[in-house]
Amino acid sequence: MTSIVLGAGIAGVTTAYYLAMDGRAVTVLDRRPGVALETSFANAGLVAPGHSYTWASPRAPKILLKSLFVEGQALRLRLSADPHMWAWCALFLRNCTATRSRENTTRKVRLCRYAQDQLQQVTAREQLQYDGTRRGLLYLYRDAASFERGRANMSILVDNGLPLETLDAAQAVAREPALEHARDRIAGAIYCPTDESGDAYQFTRELQKVCERLGVRFMFDTPISRIETEGNAITGVRTPAGLIAGDDYVLALGSYSPILARPLGYRLAIYPVKGYSATFPAGREHRPPQIGGVDENHLVAWARFGARLRFTATAEFAGYDTRHTPSDFAPILQAARELFPDGADYTKPSYWAGLRPMTPEGTPLIGRTRHRNLFLNTGHGHMGWTMSCGTAKLLADIMAGRTPELGLTGMTIK
């Protein structure tokens, strides 16, 4: 069997790996010159089942509305004439009920726990090195009210088997001594001892090498203009290199998946949500944190990768625009200096902005389509690094005719 994977991000490369492990001949296509140069290039780096909450919550509409009038919000809506954005927002708002929020979060945490187990198996089997740290993650709260909400919300994760601990400020600092300067700014924290972190870009590059040893062919600088069909089957993918054909095809193009799917009659509810990251050098003269985490009040995440310290923030509905200016990173720098004033050389930032392929529910789209040989592994949102090995394994099982090890309710197209 010959499989064509569309997209060389972390979802595409992990898919190629599992398909190759099944003995398939795999070709991966991507318009960029290498793997993981879109969403996974400089993301937060957190493998975080402990942060599996869906964005579509009862509080989200008020936050989005406020962002239209107040600058500096972590969740930002930029008014646009794009009908796809408004259609997505309508579906998002439908999911902002307490019942649906709990349902979607339950699906996310179950998928994330399964996926983390798969990631650890792949890492051990292939001896992958990607500045990984398995010391848990901290979720910090700046005031008593938000800390109490966090403690109340954690029950849904605990009910689904995730170990979580509540810490007061002193305990949080004891867990992460680099927070000493910020002790007075912390009301409390939730600690997930099984969460971890690592460089998703480095992981994907390492896994690419494994894939190539398994015979996977990567075709970079190969934009896809359209998908050719005949009846209910895909016959090939049109590129500048000609028609690339195989027995089956996997759409793993993240935010760009809906664009290629529309001419085939699919309306994938995926929309790009822009995020920002800043990475700083952290040498021996600095005191960076040893474990990653999230400042929940400002939704600023951090993770250390060897001699680098990265902060990420913001969820901005701005279409496919990845442009940025230094002023966009002001909230990140402020939070970084407040939490870890000696953590890195903040005068030498490396700035980046990327697009998260979000579904309204927060869960990805996996599995079969109406075309008998077209499959989906896309729409992972802000949890692509966490979910990648899990969704790839589930899809490989489906394509091989095996029963997936996890139910896919709410994660397939209708």
TrEMBL record:
<dbReference type="InterPro" id="IPR036188">
    <property type="entry name" value="FAD/NAD-bd_sf"/>
</dbReference>
<protein>
    <submittedName>
        <fullName>D-amino acid dehydrogenase 2 small subunit</fullName>
        <ecNumber>1.4.99.6</ecNumber>
    </submittedName>
</protein>
<keyword id="KW-0560">Oxidoreductase</keyword>
<feature type="domain" description="FAD dependent oxidoreductase">
    <location>
        <begin position="4"/>
        <end position="397"/>
    </location>
</feature>
<comment type="similarity">
    <text>Belongs to the DadA oxidoreductase family.</text>
</comment>
<dbReference type="GO" id="GO:0005886">
    <property type="term" value="C:plasma membrane"/>
</dbReference>
<dbReference type="GO" id="GO:0055130">
    <property type="term" value="P:D-alanine catabolic process"/>
</dbReference>
<dbReference type="InterPro" id="IPR006076">
    <property type="entry name" value="FAD-dep_OxRdtase"/>
</dbReference>
<dbReference type="GO" id="GO:0008718">
    <property type="term" value="F:D-amino-acid dehydrogenase activity"/>
</dbReference>
<dbReference type="Pfam" id="PF01266">
    <property type="entry name" value="DAO"/>
</dbReference>
<dbReference type="GO" id="GO:0005737">
    <property type="term" value="C:cytoplasm"/>
</dbReference>
